[in-house]
Each structure stands twice: as C-alpha cells, then as structure tokens.
C-alpha cells in the first residue's frame, strides 16, 4: 500500500479551495474585512491556516464544518461585552462565527483593528 503525497495548503487561495463554496466565500469575506480594517497588516500562512500580523501581533482564522474560528483572542477585555456571544465553548481564546448566521463584519473589523493596532 503506498501513501499519497497530500500537499498542505500554503496560501489562502489553496486553503480556501478545500472548503465548499459557501464556506470559502465566508472565509474570503473575513479575509477581505481584515485587509480593509488593517491595511498595513501582512498576510501570513502558518500552522496550515491563514492569518495576519502587524505591530508584532497576529490573528489567525480557520474554517470548520459549523463555524469560522478567529484567534487568539486574549487581552480583549475592552471588547468583551461585544465578543462574549461568539466565545467558543470549551475554548479559551477563540471566537466562533457560525455558518448559519451572517458574519458580523463590522465587529470583526473592530476586533482585528484592536488586536493588531491597540494591544
């Protein structure tokens, strides 16, 4: 039995292509929201997932069957009232945006701006 050589994605496009079209579109929406909110942020790809970095800070996002995760979300006490409904269950520093609800793009822009420029 020979093993298939499966390539892990190394770009957002390759990563996004692994998902059904509806989830891929949501991932693209989130990516574009982050790029618009923090234009100086550098797009990165590590740990097999896309992210952004600016001012020594990083945010990552990942697609899952039921939601998109955004992390790490420590040090976010100033926004806790707004982000509390999205805190992932059984996770410490992850926000979950379920696929059955529209992405809160204004809140996501606020979160990543705070995380990448104010913390």
Supply database-style keywords.
119 residues, alpha+beta, Aspartate Aminotransferase, domain 1, five-stranded antiparallel β-sheet, 4 helices, 5 strands, globular, disordered N terminus
Give an overview of the whole structure.
The chain is an alpha+beta fold and 119 residues long. The protein has a single domain, classed as Alpha-Beta Complex (Aspartate Aminotransferase, domain 1), CATH 3.90.1150.200. The chain has helices at 12-16, 21-37, 80-83, 105-118, and strands spanning 42-46, 49-54, 57-63, 67-71, 95-98. Strands 1-2-3-4-5 form a five-stranded antiparallel sheet. A hairpin with a 2-residue loop joins β2 (49-54) and β3. The longest helix has 17 residues, at 21-37.
């Amino acid at each position: 039995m020979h093993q298939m050589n499966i390539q892990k994605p190394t770009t957002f496009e390759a990563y996004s292509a692994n998902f059904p079209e509806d989830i891929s579109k949501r991932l693209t929406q989130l990516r574009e929201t982050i790029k618009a909110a923090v234009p100086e942020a550098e797009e990165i790809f590590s740990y097999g997932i896309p992210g952004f970095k600016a001012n020594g800070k990083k945010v990552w996002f990942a697609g899952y069957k039921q939601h998109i995760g955004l992390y790490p979300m420590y040090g976010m006490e100033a926004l806790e009232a707004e982000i509390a409904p999205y805190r992932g269950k059984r996770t410490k520093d992850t926000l979950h945006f379920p696929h059955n609800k529209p992405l809160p793009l204004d809140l996501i822009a606020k979160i990543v701006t705070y995380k990448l420029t104010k913390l």
